[in-house]
Design a protein that fits this description.
By secondary structure, the protein is mainly alpha-helical.
Length: about 190
């Protein structure tokens, strides 16, 4: 598996860079850099070099989080809990905190999807699994939506409200997709 190879060879390469630069580090910081790179050695080295230039002393996990603009795990958990409890007001409050910090909404979406995936693995109830799978699916689509919009905060917040208010996300997503397809067909007929 390529990712396992990256873990072995990539971490060795990262260790070499740290040793050559005589930088002490926290193991957790290095693991997080490898996770961020998602199998891409150049990305891992780029992140590591950026971190090395911005730290004083030992490379710490919290330093890496701050340097790369990672989303606070407490905020992630608060948003996940809010979505799970269908509390859109609380979810939006936490999202606004991250927006005001200038955080990347695609990264937030990805972090939320990852957290829901972790929850999915631990669930045994099929109804809960279906809901969580639908949430993950919608968050994955949200990432694509965010790439294509000039108003990311509106798109992001709308999706979160949708996640909080729906019992059957698949039906809503299908309905939205059908409306988009119908609209596209109608617009083509007009032309």
């Amino acid at each position: 598996d390529l990712r396992i190879q990256f873990r072995i060879f990539g971490e060795l390469k990262l260790y070499d860079v740290l040793e050559n630069e005589k930088v002490d580090y926290e193991e957790k910081a290095l693991n997080y850099i490898a996770k961020l790179a998602d199998g891409a050695m150049r990305d891992a080295l780029s992140i590591l070099e950026r971190c090395i230039t911005e730290i004083d002393g030992k490379l710490m996990y919290d330093d890496v989080l701050q340097i790369v603009g990672a989303i606070d795990s407490t905020i992630i958990q608060n948003i996940v809990d809010s979505i799970y409890k269908k509390d859109s007001i609380e979810a939006l409050k936490n999202i606004d905190i991250e927006i005001n910090k200038g955080k990347d909404l695609r990264q937030l979406s990805s972090s939320l999807a990852e957290e829901f995936l972790n929850i999915l693995i631990s669930k045994e109830n099929s109804e809960e699994k279906d809901r969580i799978t639908s949430i993950i699916d919608r968050l994955s689509k949200l990432d694509n939506d965010l790439k294509q919009t000039s108003r990311p905060s509106i798109v992001f917040k709308s999706a979160i409200v949708e996640l909080c208010s729906s019992n059957n996300l698949n039906a809503i997503t299908s309905s939205i997709d059908n409306n988009i397809n119908t609209s596209t067909v109608n617009n083509q007929e007009i032309l």
